[in-house]
Design goal:
297 residues; alpha/beta; Rossmann fold; six-stranded mixed sheet; 6 strands; 9% strand; globular; binds iron/sulfur cluster
């Protein structure tokens, strides 16, 4: 057999439909993954009291793998949860060139999810204001956040769910540490600056890798996130690469760092706003503290 024939046979084999056994195996793995995601999201919701009975949760859907995964798992939990809450999917169509506006409405209608598509041309604003070659993401995110908060008010949402996952939380932590000289990251639950909205991150415990595998298994109709033409922030890229490298070289290190974010000993840091260092004194030993009783003669 010639090399060309061997290559052809190999590529035909690679393209062939999966056998029944392989399909069964893939189903089993997808099911296992779904259960894990459900468990981790349920755990995060419980740990941080993210959703309460009667909540109307606005699920922000960008069309990326993370937000699809979040919506899917929340829908599944909604059917199982002992408490009742509403889910409304919201997408902000920022008028980026080539944005396939029909994809999300079609998907959401097929899942029977109530939704709202909000159109706001933040793309033109960002392009006009930011000089060519400069990073557009921070203004773009600010405008997006403003629009989403407004929609949350209009639809009466009591919670706004964002699709940031464990690796976003870790990357943000290191960005703040390395470039902002701050120990802080994205909290799993917070109140917006104007005090009007509660933002939650139900994927806080979920690894990005699992969301990517889940999106593939579920064949979500992903909308590419580079339609705006923006380059990914270089510092974020470096931090993400560093975390990936650690994960490879020192298995468990990233998990340990993530656990440390929930195990903070504020008394053993150097922040003077957290602790009145001037008031720190040794406790005198009890024998010196108690007055000595007079001895009777
Ligand atoms: S990548 Fe594009 S759409 Fe996303 S935040 Fe940056 S500028 Fe906005």
């Amino acid at each position: 057999m010639t090399q060309a024939a061997v290559d052809h046979a190999a590529s035909t084999l690679a393209r062939r439909a999966p056998s029944a056994r392989e399909a069964q195996r893939a189903d089993f793995e997808a099911n296992k993954l779904k259960k894990r995601l459900r468990r981790l999201v349920g755990q995060a919701i419980a740990d941080f009291s993210m959703i309460e009975a009667g909540d109307r949760v606005m699920v922000c859907l960008s069309g990326g793998k993370d937000s699809y995964g979040m919506l899917d798992v929340l829908l599944s939990l909604q059917h199982r949860a002992p408490l009742s809450f509403e889910l409304i999917a919201v997408n902000l169509d920022q008028k980026q060139p080539g944005f396939p506006a029909d994809v999300l409405p079609r998907y959401l209608a097929s899942r029977g999810v109530p939704f709202r598509i909000e159109e706001q041309d933040t793309y033109s604003v960002v392009k006009r204001v930011i000089p060519e070659g400069r990073t557009m993401c921070s203004l773009c995110s600010r405008l997006r956040r403003g629009a989403l908060y407004r929609v949350a008010g209009e639809i009466g949402a009591t919670k706004i769910a964002l699709g940031h996952h464990r690796d976003d939380i870790l990357a943000t932590f290191f960005l703040n540490l390395f470039f902002g000289a701050k120990l802080k990251t994205m909290p799993p639950k917070l109140v917006s600056d104007d005090g009007k909205h509660v933002v939650i991150r139900p994927l806080a415990y979920v690894r990005e890798r699992d969301l990517a595998r889940y999106a593939e298994a579920m064949a979500f109709p992903i909308i590419p996130c580079n339609l705006c033409g923006a380059q990914e922030n270089l510092q974020r890229k470096q931090v993400t690469a560093m975390l990936r490298e650690w994960e490879k070289q020192y298995p468990g290190r990233v998990e340990t760092i993530f656990n440390a974010l929930g195990n903070v000993v504020t008394t053993h840091l150097l922040d003077r706003t957290l602790r009145d260092f001037a008031a720190i004194h040794a406790t005198p030993p009890p024998s010196l503290e108690d007055p000595v009783a007079p001895t009777r003669l």
